[in-house]
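Appendix B. Raw example, untouched.
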Amino acid sequence: MKKIRNTHRLRTSAPTGPATARAEARGIAWLLLAVLCTSAQAVDAGRLFRYRDERGVMHIGTNLPAGQVQAGYEVLDSRSLKLLNVIPPAPSAEQLSRQAAERRTAAVAEAANSRAEQARQRDIAEQRNRDRMLLETYADESELVRLRDTKLESLDLILHTVDNTIVHLRRNLAQMDATAQEHIAAGRQSPASLVQGRARTAADLASQELAAERTRAERLAVRARFDADLDRYRRLTGTLKTAGS
């Protein structure tokens, strides 16, 4: 009894044109018919494999040669020749590398979006708490304005005191420098007490100038915060006046 071949070569070269394609189609039809008629094993198995080798030649058989899984193939029903599944070629090393890079980029973007969403939710929660505090603390906006003015006046008083201290320290420092110049003109060294006193005065002056800078910054922040609270309070209570109203 003649042995049944389980793999059938359909053509010897890759398709190059319409005539070649028609010839290949006829060849495929005849060979598929031969497969159906002669391959009892394929019928029993219930499926066939269709693939092209490295030369572009199409094959249909009950088994896949070694390495063909990586190159991709199709699965056909052995009775109806209906296409059951298409197994694409395995990705190349370059494709795998690109896919890995794309997954990393997507993961970074997803993490950034997650952080942004968390920050947005925190802002919403903080705003709700701020709104509740405004409505529970102030009976009307005049109380808020009065508290703002009181805090600003307190900061102005502190700043006025610091500025006066700065003027005094600068005056003392200038007098110490003039005394030091007199000693130099007379060919004498400045006394140690003068040198040490000038160093302390210069340090105090630097400290007071820094305090003045911080107080001015705090004053600006307090005004901005109260102005924002006042605007929000008016919106919450419906007392915000629009332009021209």
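End of appendix B.
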